[in-house]
Hints:
This protein has 368 residues and is an alpha+beta fold. It is built from 11 helices and 15 strands. The protein has helices spanning 18-31, 55-58, 116-124, 133-140, 142-151, 170-180, 207-215, 259-264, 279-295, 331-338, 343-362; strands at 5-12, 37-44, 50-53, 76-78, 87-89, 102-105, 159-163, 185-189, 199-201, 220-225, 229-238, 243-252, 269-272, 300-309, 315-321. It has a 5-stranded antiparallel sheet. The protein is globular and about 65 Å long. The chain starts with a strand and ends in a 6-residue tail after the last helix. Magnesium ion binds at residues 305, 319. Magnesium ion is lined by residues 305, 319.
Amino acid sequence: MERKLRVGVIFGGRSGEHEISLRSARSIVDALDRDRYEPVLLGIDPDGRWHLHDAARALLETPGAPLQLDRTAPSVAVSPGGSSTSMVTTQPSAPAVGSLDVVFPVLHGTYGEDGTIQGLLEMADVPYVGSGVLGSAAGMDKDVAKRLLRSAGLPVVDWFVVRSHQNRSPDDVAREVESRFGWPVFVKPANMGSSVGVSKARKAEELAGALAAAFRYDTKVLIERGHAVRELECGVLGNDDPRASVVGEIVPTHEFYSYEAKYLDENGAHLRIPAALTPGQSEEIRRMSVEAFAALELSGLARVDFFMDKTDGALFINEVNTLPGFTSISMYPKLWEASGLPYAELVDRLVHLGLERAATRRGLSTKV
Ligand SMILES: Nc1ncnc2c1ncn2[C@@H]1O[C@H](COP(=O)(O)OP(=O)(O)O)[C@@H](O)[C@H]1O
Ligand SMILES: [Mg+2]
């Protein structure tokens, strides 16, 4: 019998999306086929410390319950440059992490989806699921992502950037809004997720509050033309020859798909899979999704989020998520399920795509 692959599942993390990570990770661990995979649970606490969790204990609770982060579990350190000892526990009495064949970084947002953990894993020489450093970082920065998408000929909503060091007054920014596109606008931190720090300003008087909310989270803030939109999402899966899933729709019951609508209100949004679209419209979204994946240099997986203007049907790419929500009821896995790929097979496929990418890269020379 073949040796089981040891799959490190990294969860928790320092981002605002810590909680959703505990849920996503639990669903992934539950789905890993124990005949072929041995999950190794690595939890990152909100202070950024890594802990080796006892899988048997962490999974005692009912299947599907979020993983419990245990701050008393042995600390883990990453040890660069060695394949079998890429991660070590730091207390002498603690069990060893052992060699990891591949890591699934189930972290959303900053210090997870943004290239930082990918860089750490590259240094430690461990294969991992999903996009590399460049793609993860480019996908996370809404301004950089939009510039890359635009230069690939893909449609994005009009925007401009305000930086904290410019110390611009809200009145000055309001004048720029009026000369460029008018009200309403959406104001958002460049690097965030889950709608944290995102607000809608309907008039100049609302801009000061919106700017302050966004600058809490980043030194770079996007001001975007506000459209009345339908929100459509498409999954992409693969490395060099990625495929697109069926298209789904998010129907928020709030004024927009805010943090409250996403996480606090159980009825904050409905998922419609597939979205009610003409075959031509969904084909176009699927095509653009694959093009966006290539434009941002992504691998493994991504969820590409679109806006469709309700007045004229125009399509825009809003953003690309390189580690989308991954609970069994999240949009990305649901889109693949509706495309004929059940959750466990999707997880399996992602692990293999991660191994495949690492194998290709290991074949490259780093010396002259
Ligand atoms: N330009 C826009 N026009 C209309 N609605 C928008 C616009 N920008 C953002 N929104 C609304 O705000 C939500 C969150 O914005 P988004 O850019 O997707 O941030 P996040 O990365 O936090 O999900 C969107 O899902 C949508 O409901
Ligand atoms: Mg979004």
